[in-house]
Q: What sequence folds into this?
């Protein structure tokens, strides 16, 4: 009887150990809001899905607190969260930075049929432009000078309207992140047939990372990120939200 009890006790220990091992450690993430990268209304987005998929490879789940894009660094540094995204070392925040999980790249977009020659910021000066809000602040002094001197320049709050203005030929060029443009084009494609566009690479791309407070979590994320890139899951996530060829 004693041996039978001992057998059951050991069996229960293994059962509970296996069960606990199957449970994911929950990571508290501060995430900046920016469709289609992170959308609190659906608790999803390109960035959100990539982070979740990578951490899931190491049995971590993610609880997300969404904040305005510009507040990520401050909220991450002042809160008890485990991670913050998107950030990079230039933020000045001391953290364990992951490998780059996404590259944001602002581009100039034109209709291919117009065959515009846009090789640098200066060449934008002769075109009608719709840019994202505060582009004059974020895209540097040369861009700001061009915008001030261009009577056909405007900034648009709702970025889907940039796509509409270009498609209706109300502007010659839009300025914004290429995946944001593709995301809204995917929505417009449900309503109308879309002409091909040209992406003009006149701005430097910006690699972004997930900032962690724990080195082990960073390593887990990096290994998971490598896995989803190798398996093709990474690209599938991006394709779920965008349309057309990918720059990166």
A:
């Amino acid at each position: 009887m004693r041996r039978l009890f001992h057998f059951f006790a050991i069996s229960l220990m293994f059962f509970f150990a296996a069960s606990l091992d199957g449970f994911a450690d929950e990571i508290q993430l501060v995430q900046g809001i920016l469709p289609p990268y992170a959308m609190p209304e659906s608790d999803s987005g390109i960035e959100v899905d990539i982070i979740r998929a990578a951490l899931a490879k190491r049995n971590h789940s993610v609880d997300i607190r969404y904040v305005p894009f510009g507040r990520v660094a401050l909220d991450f540094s002042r809160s008890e969260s485990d991670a913050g995204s998107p950030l990079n070392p230039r933020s000045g925040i001391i953290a364990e930075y992951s490998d780059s999980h996404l590259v944001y790249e602002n581009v100039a977009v034109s209709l291919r049929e117009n065959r515009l020659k846009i090789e640098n910021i200066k060449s934008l000066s002769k075109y009608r432009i719709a840019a994202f809000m505060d582009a004059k602040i974020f895209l540097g002094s040369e861009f700001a000078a061009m915008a001030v001197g261009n009577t056909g320049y405007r900034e648009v709050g709702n970025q889907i309207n940039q796509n509409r203005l270009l498609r209706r030929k109300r502007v010659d060029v839009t300025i914004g992140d290429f995946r944001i443009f593709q995301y809204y084009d995917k929505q417009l494609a449900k309503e109308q047939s879309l002409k091909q566009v040209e992406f003009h690479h006149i701005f430097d791309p910006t690699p972004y990372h997930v900032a962690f407070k724990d080195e082990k979590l960073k390593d887990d994320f990096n290994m998971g990120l490598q896995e989803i890139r190798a398996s093709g899951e990474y690209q599938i996530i991006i394709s779920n939200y965008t349309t057309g060829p990918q720059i990166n």
User: Anything to note?
Assistant: Residues 2-22 form the longest helix (21 residues). Residues 106-200 form a domain with the D-Maltodextrin-Binding Protein; domain 2 fold (CATH 3.40.190.10). The chain has nine helices and eleven strands. The CA atoms of residues 184 and 190 lie 10 Å apart.
